[in-house]
Amino acid sequence: MNMVKATAAEGAIELVPDVHWVGALDPGLRSFDIILKTANGTTYNSYVVRGSAGVAVIDTVKESFSDTFFRRLESVADYGEITTIVLNHLEPDHSGALPELLRRAPQAKLYISSRGGPMLKGLLHGEQLAYQPTRTGMEVDLGDRKLRFLQTPFLHWPDTQCTWLEDAGVLFSGDAFGCHFCDPRLFNDNVGDFRFSFDYYYAHLMRPFRSRVLDALELIEPLPLKVIAPAHGPILRDAPDRYVARYRELSASRLKNEAAEEKTLIIFYLSAYGSTRAMAESLAAGAEDATGVRVSLYDIEGGEVSPFVDLIEEADGLAFGSPTINGDAVKPVWDLLSSLAAVDIKGKLGAAFGSYGWSGEAVPMVEDRLRGLKLRVPVKGVRARLVPTPEELAQCRELGRELALHLTGRQESTEIDMAALA
Fold this sequence. Notes:
The protein is 30% helix and 22% strand. The chain has 422 residues and is α/β, with parallel strands linked by helices. Residues 413-422 have low confidence and may be disordered.
């Protein structure tokens, strides 16, 4: 491969013969989708593929960068040649120039994933666009070359897909294998060190869908990759398999359970005067009474929450203890719960407990948040006013025992009195 060192400032850039980058640079961007910091800005990558029977445009750019996109596009293709438009992902930073592109190339056929229809309608606010839904293995013929679609949902939206150009070994990967890193030298062997940005992007956008990443890798790993062309960040032409392997590594289980045959329950708590701590210790003792459950107890006062994220992702059950202060759970508990949006916790077991002085809202508020995060909360939490009584500590111990039984599948089913429901 000819490792040219042209920069994107010079216009359209050729990746391989008859495949060009026609995207846009946004070096001044410092925040993306609110949650991502972008110290190096980002790129909106769009590509043009020329075949003997037509031209395909793969993804567009953020609407405010449309002029740059169309100028680069016009340098390598006439609008009348465009037969195919592919959107691997419909987020506005990729679809912003789509309506104008279709007005300029009305003969082009739009291809989006089978899940993309409702999103397209929502983004365009009533503007009706005809499109062809895609499926894995479906192909678009450009004459002497073909585009083939791979459905990769939730990398990181439901509609995401990849597009494979087999004759050139180019995978147009959408958001997968991308990062927010703007460098006009464009190719991974030319730009600055973007390893942190690559891993940071994965952690915030892909990690919550780790199982979906693994599904996608089953489709991507067998491909004879020469270039990965993502929707953001450097184009990966040097050792692209290395980045696929990195996704495999990042998506693997991070912590090995030293007692793999056991279920794991983690108890987090804060305690102002020792009351919630005593409840946590009783809960732990109750869980340990049941065989097959390994219990870990953590006081999170004054500590950072980020070290617990990997631990939480690998755990089977989570219990949170918080006193009620000013009608609310305490901030470190909310910080920890907020961090869980970045990991896959759906279906895990959850519970809450804590002491209070006046109203005791913390426990039901934490339970509601756990349900919102798609955890199962099968056992009502325990609240104790001020110093827990022996009876209330016994309730905590029973809560721990019931959680352990639920974790191990030994909880007796509850008999429902139908007459009582009448």
